Amino acid sequence: MSESSAGRIPRDDCKLDADYPILVTESSGIAPQYRRLHWHDVLEINLIKRGRGYYHINGKTVEFRQGDILLIGANDLHRAYERENLQMLVITFSPDWFLADLRYDPALLSPFRELGVHYGHLISRNHPRIETLRAILLTLQKEDEHKAVSHISVVRSHLLRFLAYVARDCRRLASVVGGARAGSTPEGRLEKIRDALELMERHYAREWDLKTLSDRVYLSPARFSAVFKQALGVSPMEYLIKVRLSNAVRLLESSDRKIVDVAYECGFHNLSNFNRLFKCNVGVSPSHVRKIVSSGRRQVDKIPSLSNRFAEEREYRFL
Predict the structure, then answer these.
(1) What's the CATH fold of domain 3-177?
(2) By the 8 A CB rule, do 156 and 213 touch?
(3) What is the CA radius of gyration of the chain?
(4) pLDDT 10s per residue in the chain (319 long)?
C-alpha cells in the first residue's frame, strides 16, 4: 500500500487479547467492517464456506468462491464484495504470536511477507493441498468455539501447522504471481540473519547496537536492518527486546532474584524502562509474575500469554 493511501485511509485498530492474539469469526454476507476500503497491521485468513464474491486488494481484483482460501497481509488495502450467498470464516491474528518460532523457521510467515512475489492472495479450491488446509482451519474454529482445557495451545498449534504447510506447499515462482518485488529474502542473506539471531540469543545482555550487529554479519546498518525486518517482520532492536524479555520471564519464574537484578542481567539498565516494556509485551508487570509464582500457581494457569508469546528456552540450532 502506498504512503498516500495510508495517509488518506486511517488504519483499523485491531485490538487482540495479549493472552490470545487471534480472533475467529464467521460472517454471512459481508460484515459492515469489511464493506469499506480498510487496512490493518494484523494478518488475516479467509476460508470461503459458501457462495462467491471478490476482493479489491491494493488496486487488484481477486475473485473467490466456495472452497477457496485467501490471505490478507498487514497493510494490504482491501475491501470485500459479495456476489452470491457468501459465508466465510475470518481469522485475524498478530504475527507476534509466532515471533519465537521464526528463530527456528524464518520462512514461517513468508506467505504474508512475500505476497505478490512467491505467494498469491488466493489459494484456489483446486490446489492439491487445499483439503488439508481447509480441515486445519475448520478444526481450529471448533477449538476456538469450545474453549476446552489448553485450547489456546491447540489453536496456536493448528495455526502454526497451517502457516507451515502454506509456506512449503503454496510457494510459486515469481513469474507466476507477477514478477519480483522487494520482499523476498535471498538464502545468503537469511544465513546472515541467522548469524545475527544466534549472537542475540546467546549474548542477549550485551549492549548491542545496530552498527555492532551489522558489522558482525558484514552488512551496512541500513541494509542489515532492512533485510532483518524483511525476514522476521520486526527490527533487530525490537527482536532483541523480545529475546531479553523472554529470558526475564524465565528468571522471574525460576529464581528468587530481585526484579532489578533480573532486569540488569537481561540487558536492561533502567528499571522503569524494563517495567514499561515488560508490561507492554507480556501483558502483566514483572511484580505480578513474581506474585503468581510466589503463590505457588503455575504461570500457564494465570498468564497463558507467557507460554504462548515465548518459546520454551532451549539451545538455538541452525538447520
Answers:
(1) Jelly Rolls (2.60.120)
(2) no
(3) 21
(4) 443 344 455 667 778 888 899 999 998 887 766 666 778 889 999 999 999 999 988 778 899 999 999 999 987 888 888 888 999 999 999 998 998 888 888 889 999 988 887 899 999 999 999 999 999 999 999 999 999 999 999 999 999 999 999 999 998 754 334 333 444 455 566 677 778 888 888 899 999 999 999 998 888 999 888 888 776 667 889 889 988 988 898 888 888 889 999 999 999 999 999 999 998 877 788 988 888 777 764 443 444 334 334 443 333 322 2
Q: What is the DSSP string of 39-91?
A: --SSEEEEEEEEEEEEEEETTEEEEEETT-EEEE-TT--EEEEEEEEEEEEEE
The residue type of 216 is: R
Tell me if residue 236 falls in helix, strand or coil.
helix
Extents of the domains making up the chain: 3-177, 195-309
Q: Which CATH number fits domain 195-309: 1.10.10.60, 3.40.50.1100, 3.30.930.10, 1.20.1560.10?
A: 1.10.10.60
- Would you call 122 helix, strand, or coil by DSSP? strand
Question: Using CA atoms in the order 169, 173, 175, 176, what is the torsion angle rounded to 10 degrees?
Answer: -20
Quote the CA–CA distance of 313 and 319 in Å, as a whole number.
Answer: 17
Buried b (16+ CB within 10 A) or exposed e, 39-51: bbebbbbbbbbeb
Q: For 167-176, which contacts have Cβ atoms below 8 Å and span 24 or more sequence positions?
A: 167/105, 167/107, 167/108, 167/109, 167/110, 167/111, 169/128, 169/129, 170/111, 170/119, 170/123, 170/127, 170/129, 171/110, 171/111, 171/118, 171/119, 172/118, 172/119, 172/120, 173/118, 174/117, 174/118, 176/120
